[in-house]
Write a structure and sequence with these properties.
156 residues; alpha+beta
């Protein structure tokens, strides 16, 4: 799967997006260290063991590099960065019951803004699945020759 590049200095304003999510009763925030087990359990239940590992890395960094979407003290989704490699976005996922609320896009922007706040001009979305989603929402472009990129010799 190909990698994509995002111009962080050219991100659109996200205030309206965050307001729309808040109006649905959803809180977007950085996860906290003492929630590591809870966020990792969410990733395990809804996604993959490799993503659990990356969530644990994100929650061990300072500042923590994982944002979560919550409602009524339940995690609905997450987005991490600086896990596989520095300046990389992902993994990210939204529970099936919460899809269609705009959480994927909102979490994407929270994480990209986090990368930008660290001083990066660009971010890499590694091993992209939904290319159209990233192209449409944050102007991501494919990086020629990036498949398989850093994702070689993967262990089970």
């Amino acid at each position: 799967m190909i990698d994509m590049l995002v111009r962080l200095y050219d991100l659109p304003d996200s205030a309206a997006l965050y307001q729309a999510v808040a109006e649905k009763g959803v809180t977007l925030r950085r996860a906290r260290a003492f929630e590591k087990h809870t966020v990792a359990a969410f990733a395990k239940e809804h996604f993959s063991p490799k993503w659990v590992s990356e969530v644990e890395v994100a929650l061990s960094r300072q500042p923590i590099t994982c944002f979560i979407a919550t409602r009524d003290k339940q995690i609905l989704g997450f987005a991490c960065y600086d896990t596989t490699m520095r300046g990389f976005f992902g993994p990210t996922g939204v529970a099936e019951i919460a899809r269609g609320l705009g959480l994927g896009k909102a979490l994407l922007f929270k994480a990209l803004e986090g990368i930008r706040d660290l001083g990066h001009a660009y971010a890499i979305i590694g091993g992209v699945g939904p290319k159209e989603f990233y192209a449409k929402n944050c102007g991501a472009i494919e990086i020629p020759g990036s498949d398989p990129g850093t994702y070689t010799d993967l262990l089970p």
